[in-house]
Amino acid sequence: MPYIIAGLGNPGEEYVNTRHNTGRIVLEVVAKECGAAHSMHEGDGFVFNKKLNAFVVETKIGKERVTFVAPDTFMNNSGKAIAPLVKSVKAAERLVVIYDDFNLPLGRIKISFNRSSGGHNGVESIIKAVKTEAFVRIRVGTAPEKANGDAKVPHGDEKVLKFILSKFKEEELKVLKKVGKRVAEALEVLVREGREKAMSVYNAG
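Above: the chain sequence. Below: its structure as tokens.
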């Protein structure tokens, strides 16, 4: 039973490098770090799977098989691409979902297991599709950081929507690439030593 590592986002040119596409951006970096793929362009490692409606590439971390998945559905339907790969509650324990969180400052990650969606539509879609909350999430911060280290969080539906669909600046993308490398390290620990170890190491800093 392989590990399924999913990076959430929206398909289409207009969503490239937007904050809501953080999961896809980070997944691309992770796949590159693992030597599995260079990008989500056909021929660069990832292959478009019509049945799943997702870009997929397989590799190994240690002795464990790993499948990287970037749903090409819209965010609200992410579960449709994931469900065929996760057919039981037991299989869901080997699912890792990477996605954006505007409650965390850019540069921070938070690994958790068996939590609610926290209002994230992509995660909500996956919970409904795989019929359990018992899977790993890696939340990646997208918000500017205040002087005290907290996230500068947008308030109100309109401001939130505008923020998550805004594009990262060039320097922010550089930070995100570094975050991707950190997520790749965290995944290696998770696969080789278990999720508890990954959480204790990577939620600390």
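Residues 174 and 202 are 20 Å apart (CA to CA).
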